[in-house]
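Hello forum,

I keep getting stuck at the same step: I have a sequence, I want structure tokens, and every attempt I make locally crashes halfway through. Rather than fight my setup again tonight, could one of you with a working pipeline run this one for me? It's a single chain of 166 residues.
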Amino acid sequence: MKSLDELSVHFLQDIYYAERQLLKALPKMAKHAQDPSLKEAFTAHREETQHQIERLDQVFDEMGKRAKGIPCEAIKGLIEEVEELLEDGEAGAVRDAGLAACAQAVEHYEIARYGALVAWAKATGHKNAVTLLQQTLDEEKNADKLLNDLANNNINTAASRMTEAA
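Reply #2:
Ran it on my machine without issues. Output:
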């Protein structure tokens, strides 16, 4: 990669792959969440993720590139953590706390990627891409805040009661 545009396309392909993998993982996370608010957060974020993929398609178009993903080892690892949690954890508040934490790890990865992409789009003059990517970055930050609030205001307290009862 010899230019910021080339680096941007590489990162776009990475996050495109990541979003498409999350589209598959979020329904499973919602299905296994016990807390109704967490279940709803995963369901709502799946719909949001679909719109984020559509915006990425538009960014690829603006950059004159075909929308395609490249395997993202980071997201594979984060989704693998979810799978391990679902295999090893019992249904209930403790597993919900783990699901919320795993989802936040994904959000933090996405926030880092979209933050860089917004900055690079600004630097290279891709104004429409800035708008589209910033909208997604804002959504990812809001999803992280929601997960944090759910965990701190309900899920973690319920999970700590399970530990005390054990």
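The helical segments are 4-32, 36-62, 73-88, 93-123, 127-165. If your local run keeps crashing, start a new thread with the error log.
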